[in-house]
Amino acid sequence: MRWQTLTGQAVSILALSSQPLLAKGQENWTHFGLRPLAMGNAYVAVADDYNALFYNPAGLARIKEWDGELINPAVTASTSLGTLMKDAQDKLKSGEVSDTLDLIESNTGKSYHVGLSLTPHLIFPHFGFAIGTELGASMVFNRNISTDFDAGLRVVMPFTFAMNFLEDKLSVGASLKARLRAGVDRQFSMEDIESFQTSGEDTDAKKIDDYVLSGLGYGADVGMLFTPTKTMEPTIGVSITDFGGTPYTKMEVGGESLGNPPATLPSVNVGFSLKPIQKDKLYILTTMDMHAINQPYSFSKKVNFGSELGYGSIIKLQAGLYQGYLTGGFQFDVGLINLRLITYSEELGAVAGFKEDRRYAAQIKLLL
């Protein structure tokens, strides 16, 4: 089978669904962690583990001891992914454009997601660093016989420092970070897909390489946590990620300059958390967040709620409401064994509760 045919089919098969904002090139406001997502992604006022590096740098001022993970792969997939792969095997046998069209028509309105992430990190009281890496592919099939395709590599590398003030009631932190982005984020029409499957001798034939965007950017995050009393630990959290925006500088591969990704917009995020029950190692944590309050999209997608029942750091059960959909998770941590299992949904429409993409994710810590 010709290379161009395989490429065209890959465009039709690879899957990862994203919101309309992301489909237009806007990145997530942070590198999402599995524990925060299980808690409805309401984490700005919690920030009590390595995820503080991405959600609220002030949290590192409240870390009591060092912690590190070197190999902690996480795999995420949509529930609908298996159906797509089976459908693709049945319909994409001959490599003809008509087969690709049939696949798109039979999956109109559906979305798919698959991804692999790795977040090695090392944190100490007051400072830490991490490399949040996400490699994934996504697709949303549209009714106008087109496909929203988003695939590639995204990396966030924060270096964070934080301090306490007012007898440890106020914590303030800041991060300097690098962002790397490389991949394709575009809506492909049927004409585009047909061109991918054109003979390699045709000088007008297109390749996926023609649509690759790649760039390196440098930005900063700032954050604050305020806990006025130790009774139930009511905490207000505020973070500003990509302060002032993070633009990307074009990168060259093989002497060829690639397209430049759009800048990551600044995001103002606020949260409130409370521990209504805390006895010995047993606790219940509740939290509420509002993300990207400065950005012009639906209020219903900005407000999230979460809770966690835990026994020390050994067992944690999470639940929440993220973008209008229920989330849940389980974490087990004993010695070298750390297992995280979660489920959550991404909203594909403009408002919460419109179009759900249910996802499941699993992560295991292998070292440290």
Question: What spatial order of strands do you see in the largest sheet?
Answer: 2-3-6-7-8-9-10-14-15-16-17-18-19-20
Question: Quick one: overall form?
Answer: globular
CATH architecture level-2 label: Beta Barrel
What is the CA–CA distance across the termini? 45 Å
Main sheet? Answer: 14 strands, antiparallel, barrel
Seen as an oligomer or otherwise, the chain set is: single chain
The average pLDDT is 84
Please compute the radius of gyration using only Cα atoms: 22 Å
Number of strands: 20
Q: What is the CATH class?
A: Mainly Beta
Count of runs of 4 or more consecutive helical residues: 7
What are the segments in which pLDDT stays under 50 over at least 5 consecutive residues?
1-25
Describe the structure.
Helix 1 (3-13) packs antiparallel against helix 7 (190-196). The chain has one domain (3-365): Porin. A hairpin with an 8-residue loop joins strand 19 (337-347) and strand 20. The chain has 7 helices and 20 strands. By secondary structure, it is mainly beta.
